[in-house]
TrEMBL record:
Its job: Purine salvage pathway enzyme that catalyzes the transfer of the ribosyl-5-phosphate group from 5-phospho-alpha-D-ribose 1-diphosphate (PRPP) to the N9 position of the 6-oxopurines hypoxanthine and guanine to form the corresponding ribonucleotides IMP (inosine 5'-monophosphate) and GMP (guanosine 5'-monophosphate), with the release of PPi.
Enzyme Commission numbers on file: 2.4.2.8
EC category: transferase
Protein known as: Hypoxanthine phosphoribosyltransferase
């Protein structure tokens, strides 16, 4: 690791704050909380435990990065929701908004499917990476314009299990073995 950007303690504290804030927002709404596989899993698991209201969970797997550090620009559905979203209040949970393509695609899709409302909570926001216009409603932390890993975020499927968010040494990005 070249540097740690957000420590395990900082992530834990922010998850508690966001979960409590979302409890108040979704009181009496029974939102469909949608985790975007695979990166959102640790963050989703941590915030929903602080959402003290009725919620439902579902998952969507979309992919645009593969093993690269730069988005291919094309979003592909790998696994769709099991739930009919018509009339539902939806909360999309993401690990990061970078180019914005993944979330733009999902928000447009859920609106097309006639969700009642679509909000976004993301652990990380990388505003300098943005290519399409989309913003999250709830943000854990801003990160600089570098490829980050940990707490769900991978480089070539590795490092998702790190309990903190950091930047790898450049030699690792250059030669993956
Ligand atoms: O704003 P964007 O440029 O679209 O990037 C953000 C998306 O890219 C990553 O997913 P990835 O496709 O790597 O899938 P993963 O979660 O399985 O790693 C990340 O988890 C977000 O879903
Ligand atoms: O900085 C990043 N790290 C890991 N995965 C990502 N997907 C988009 N941006 C990133
Ligand atoms: Mg990835």
């Amino acid at each position: 690791m070249k540097k740690i950007l957000i420590t395990q303690e900082e992530v834990a504290k922010r998850c508690e704050e966001l979960g409590k804030e979302l409890t108040a927002v979704y009181k009496n709404k029974q939102p469909l909380v949608v985790g975007v596989l695979k990166g959102a899993i640790p963050f989703m698991a941590d915030i929903v435990r602080y959402m003290d209201t009725y919620i439902e969970l579902d998952f969507m797997d979309v992919s645009s990065y593969g093993d690269a550090t730069v988005s291919s620009g094309e979003v592909k559905i790998v696994k769709d929701l099991d739930t009919n979203v018509k009339g539902r209040d939806m909360l999309i949970v993401e690990d990061i908004i970078d180019s914005g393509r993944t979330l733009k695609y999902l928000v447009d899709l859920f609106k097309y499917r006639q969700a009642n409302s679509v909000a976004i909570v993301t652990l990380l926001d990388k505003p300098k990476g943005r290519v399409v216009g989309i913003e999250a409603d709830y943000i854990g932390f801003d990160v600089p314009n570098e490829f980050v890993v940990g707490y769900g975020l991978d480089f070539a499927e590795r490092y998702r299990n790190l309990p903190y968010v950091g930047v790898l040494k450049s030699s690792i990005y250059e030669t993956k073995v």
